[in-house]
Every structure is written in C-alpha cells, then in structure tokens.
C-alpha cells in the first residue's frame, strides 16, 4: 500500500512536527491506512530537545510530492541476460499481453540494452537476404533447435559460423554447394549427408531424420545435430539462436530512474521514437520497463496537511498530489483540491490541541510519551498560554495531556523556551528556525519569530540578525522582512524589521527606533502581526 504522507509546513515548528507525528499515529492505530509523518525542513533545537526527552525520532524528510517514476505502475517483465537466445526472448515477449520490449542485462543485473519485437522482426528479414551466421555458441544452436548432438570432431566445437543452405530433393541435391563454411539442413538424404561429411562442412542439421550407418566410417570433422523440426522451421530457429546482445538496441536507451520526475521523463519520451524505456534503480540495475501509456495518468502521492493550508508554506509539487485532509488552526488560504475532502479548521492556539481532541473523540488514549509531545506542542504554540491565540480548550487539553505523561507544565515550558536562543547557534539559524512567508495584498514578506525568557541577551546580537535579514531580503526581493523576538516575561515582542518604517509605525501605532521597535502585548505572528499589516495594506 502506498504511504499517505502527513506533513506540516516549511521551516517546521514543534506544533507542526508533533501534530504530523500524532495524527499519523492515531490513524495507523485505528487501522485506517499507511500514514507516515513527514517534515519539510530541518528540526529546530527546541523540537529536537522535545523529541529527545520523550524518545522519538524526527519524521522523515521529504523534498517534493511531484509525480515520480516510482509512482507509476510500470511493467515488470523478466529481464534477459545478454547471452540469452533471440528465440527465448521472443517466447517471453509473447507470454505477456501487450508487451513489446524486454530489458537486456549484464551478469550483475545492470542495463545493457533493450530488445523489441520490431528489432527481432528486422533481424529476421535481414537473415532472408543474408542467410549467414557467425560464431553462434553450440549450446544456443542446440537449444533453439530443441535437438541433440550426434557427431562432433575430435576437438569439440564451441561455435558455428557459415552460410545456411537447405538440401531439398525438389531443388536438386547436386546443386547444393558443400564447403567448410556451409551449415547444411537436410532430411532423409543419406547421399547428401555423406557428401557433406566428406566435404567437412561446418555443421549438418538432420531434420526429422537419422544418421546413416555409413557415416560412422567417415572421419568426422563436422558437427552433426538432429532436430525434430522440419527444415524450414529449423532454418528460422538457427537465425534466432544468436545471443540477444547482437540484436538489441544499446544506444539512446534513456533509462528512467525511480526518483526522476514524470514531467521530465515525459519530455524525454516526446523527443524519442521508442515505445518503451528501461526503469533502473540508483545502482543502474533494471527494475522494469516504462511505456508511453504509463505516463498518461500517473498515480499521485497522497498527503494530509497539518498546521497549514497555504501553498507557499507547503511541500513543493502539491498541485500534483492528492490532498486527502487538512487539519489546521490558521486562516483559510489558497490550497485548492480537485474534490471535497475532510477539513478541520478550528480557532484554537495549536494544531496539537485539535489532534489531541481527535484521540479523545475516537476513544483512544495517546501513549504517555505521545501525550508528552502533545503537551510541549501546545505550550510552544500558545507561548505558555500567554498568546492571544490561546483558548481555554488549549489550556484544558495541555493539562490533560500533561497528566497522562506525568509531566509538569512549568518544567516543560522552561525546557522549551530555553532551547531556541542558545548563544551557540548562528544568527541565521535563530532567525529562520520558525520562519514563514506571506503574500498580503500584493506585498511579499517574511516573518521569523523566536520566543525567549531573556530578550536582552538576544538583542545583543542585533547587528548579526539584521545582516542575515538583509541577505535574505535581497535574495527574495521582499517588500518587508520582520523578526519577532517574543519575551515571555515582558509579555511583548521586540521587532527587528527591514522595509518601510512608516508601515510599521502606522500598522502598530508606534515610533520605531531605526530598525527596531518594542510591541507590548504582541505575542502572535498569526493573530496580531499579519492581521495588522493586512488591515494597513487593505
């Protein structure tokens, strides 16, 4: 079963990571499917400390949900070794309905070439015009003819070369050229057989016939093979006994790797006349074949979005994925779906509050360790219940989860908010550990936030933060870039900003000091900063 990825937003915070993990665990526990928690960016120090405390690994990192070759229901026919006969390959091609190509591999399973029915047909037509064979292994020849070796020279023959000739009475046996490079097919024609042995032809193929007794008296310098097939069919089988590596296509193979994007493979197929392309893994070993029909309707990855519903904050390639659900506590944004989905958007301070409630609604108590994670996520997103986004339900849910986890809310809060502003971290890491981009009335901007118990210590690195902000501002061509240093004790936020000081002054009714201003009572990016700027810009 294909996984269903549960993913939070880019630059994930603790609430985003924990909500994805908890919801995946809930659905898997209920037997609803193969839900896999995923993340879109690095784990912050705060989140890592929370995960370590309760013994969890970080969710898997995904970079895109664009359709990839691994999402296609490509064919998995048997791959044939380059030494296999064309006859055997032809049989395999006709065992699978609609199959027109087979991958040809080296002994180690890596790709050598592609063999198609068209290629075999072209080889067969050439053999009519030029009925010659060269260095065909004897094992191949005997196998294709379904025959047996009756005689051989003193030095065993390993390969056969020569011009194929057919001795039929209607054609006049005396007209048959017998030379050391002749491969002779004949029936019950004792005289022809003896003459051929005396002429030391390369090979005699006895079709539905036995070897004359007189042949045993002639010194043998030829390979004699018996076959149960009539001469014409035996002749065709001789030409199909050559190894496939002499017939298959070895150039312009255009192998598709599992992680290749379908869009790119489709472009390659458009520029290439071949009907099938090999599918290989990272080591070049063949996994199957990909036809044009597979590219028409790829199987889309399935995702559940938590803690966001905005395309700019979501996983790249979302437009190619199938969104199954959205669980969020932010404003409704611009994510669109092809059909109706389950959506749960509630005005609470943390997505973890919603997910914890879903555990209770389904009569499933989270484990002690998961309850600890959910407690930390709620505390982090509600700033220890001081954020204006916090609701009585957040406080109640966090208290219940803390009881299940046997943890103190105050101790967990101290642990969470002491991890994010360590002096060991670079200014850039602190700035972008909880960072989001927004588009407001045609204005693009980025807003980072860090929560601390000692804003003075953080502000001593003001110049470092502004330097990192200027670099990002130039790269992204933002209209404005903000960095909130939210102080839990002061119950407000220091705001470092790049862009129009007049906008900040008017939107928040303050007087900035250069690129800095303190905003008392402002704790929430979602509920205070973004709405104020939205109103200002109309």
Describe this structure in words.
This protein is of the alpha/beta class. It folds into 3 domains: 4-67 and 301-419, inorganic pyrophosphatase (n-terminal core); 71-124 and 245-295, CBS-domain (Roll), CATH 3.10.580.10; 427-537, DHHA2 domain (Diaminopimelate Epimerase, Chain A, domain 1), CATH 3.10.310.20. The protein is built from 17 helices and 23 strands. A 6-stranded parallel sheet has the order 3-2-1-16-17-18. Strands 7-9-10-11-12-8 form a 6-stranded mixed sheet, with helices on both faces. A hairpin with a 2-residue loop joins strand 19 and strand 20. Helix 1 packs antiparallel against helix 10 (368-381), helix 10 (368-381) packs antiparallel against helix 11 and helix 16 (501-508) packs across helix 17. It starts with a strand and ends with a helix. The model has no long low-confidence stretch (mean pLDDT 90).
The rounded Rg comes to 37 Å
Level-2 CATH architecture of the largest domain: Alpha-Beta Complex
**Total of DSSP H or I helical runs spanning 4+ residues:** 17
The CATH topology of the largest domain corresponds to inorganic pyrophosphatase (n-terminal core)
The total of beta strands comes to 23
Shape: elongated
Structural class: alpha/beta
Give the class-level CATH name of the largest domain: Alpha Beta
Tell me what portion of residues adopts beta-strand conformation: 15-25%
Number of domains: 3
* Helix content class: 25-40%
In CATH, the homologous superfamily of the largest domain goes by the name inorganic pyrophosphatase (n-terminal core)
Low-confidence stretches: none
Strand order of the largest sheet: 3-2-1-16-17-18
**How far from one another are the termini?**
47 Å
| Average pLDDT level | 90
Main sheet summary: 6 strands, parallel
């Amino acid at each position: 079963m294909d996984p269903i990825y549960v993913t939070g937003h880019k630059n994930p915070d603790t609430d985003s990571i924990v909500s994805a993990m908890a919801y995946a665990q809930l659905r898997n526990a209920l037997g609803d499917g193969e839900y896999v928690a995923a993340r879109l960016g690095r784990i912050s120090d705060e989140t890592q400390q929370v995960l370590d405390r309760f013994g969890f690994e970080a969710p898997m990192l995904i970079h895109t949900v664009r359709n990839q070759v691994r999402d296609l229901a490509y064919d998995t026919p048997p791959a044939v070794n380059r030494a296999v006969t064309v006859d055997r390959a032809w049989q395999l091609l006709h065992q699978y309905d609609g199959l027109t190509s087979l991958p040809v591999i080296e002994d180690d399973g890596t790709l050598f070439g592609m063999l198609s029915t068209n290629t075999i047909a072209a080889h067969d037509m050439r053999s009519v015009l030029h009925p010659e064979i060269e260095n065909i292994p004897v094992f191949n020849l005997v196998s294709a003819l379904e025959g047996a070796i009756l005689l051989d020279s003193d030095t065993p023959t390993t390969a056969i070369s020569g011009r194929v000739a057919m001795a039929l009475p209607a054609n006049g046996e005396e007209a048959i050229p017998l030379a050391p490079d002749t491969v002779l097919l004949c029936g019950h024609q004792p005289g022809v057989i003896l003459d051929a042995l005396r002429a030391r032809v390369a090979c005699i193929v006895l079709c539905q016939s036995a070897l004359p007794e007189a042949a045993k008296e002639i010194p043998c310098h030829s390979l004699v093979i018996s076959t149960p097939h009539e001469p014409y069919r035996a002749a065709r089988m001789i030409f199909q006994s050559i190894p496939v590596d002499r017939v298959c296509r070895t150039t312009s193979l255009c192998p598709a790797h599992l992680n290749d994007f379908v869009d790119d493979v489709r472009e390659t197929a458009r520029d290439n006349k071949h009907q099938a392309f090999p599918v290989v893994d990272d080591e070049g070993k063949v996994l199957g074949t990909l036809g044009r029909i597979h590219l028409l309707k790829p199987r889309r990855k399935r995702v559940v979005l938590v803690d966001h519903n905005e395309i700019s904050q979501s996983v790249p390639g979302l437009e190619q994925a199938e969104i199954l659900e959205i669980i969020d506590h932010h404003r409704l944004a611009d994510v669109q779906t092809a059909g109706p989905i389950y959506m749960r958007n509630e005005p609470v301070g943390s997505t973890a509050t919603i997910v914890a409630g879903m555990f209770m609604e389904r009569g499933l108590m989270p484990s002690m360790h998961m309850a600890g994670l959910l407690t930390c996520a709620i505390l982090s997103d509600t700033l220890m219940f001081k954020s204006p986004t916090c609701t009585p339900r957040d406080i109640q849910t966090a208290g219940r989860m803390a009881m299940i986890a046997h943890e103190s809310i105050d101790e967990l809060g101290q642990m969470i908010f002491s991890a994010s502003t360590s002096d060991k971290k670079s200014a850039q890491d602190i700035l972008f550990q909880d960072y989001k981009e927004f588009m407001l009335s045609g204005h693009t901007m980025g807003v980072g936030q860090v929560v601390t118990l000692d804003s003075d210590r953080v502000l001593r690195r003001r110049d470092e933060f502004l330097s990192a902000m200027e670099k990002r501002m130039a790269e992204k061509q933002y209209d404005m870039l903000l960095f909130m240093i939210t102080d839990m004790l002061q119950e407000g936020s220091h705001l470092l900003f790049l862009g129009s000081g007049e906008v900040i002054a008017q939107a928040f009714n303050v007087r900035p000091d250069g690129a800095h201003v303190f905003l008392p009572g402002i704790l929430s990016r979602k509920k205070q900063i973004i709405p104020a700027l939205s109103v200002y810009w109309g």
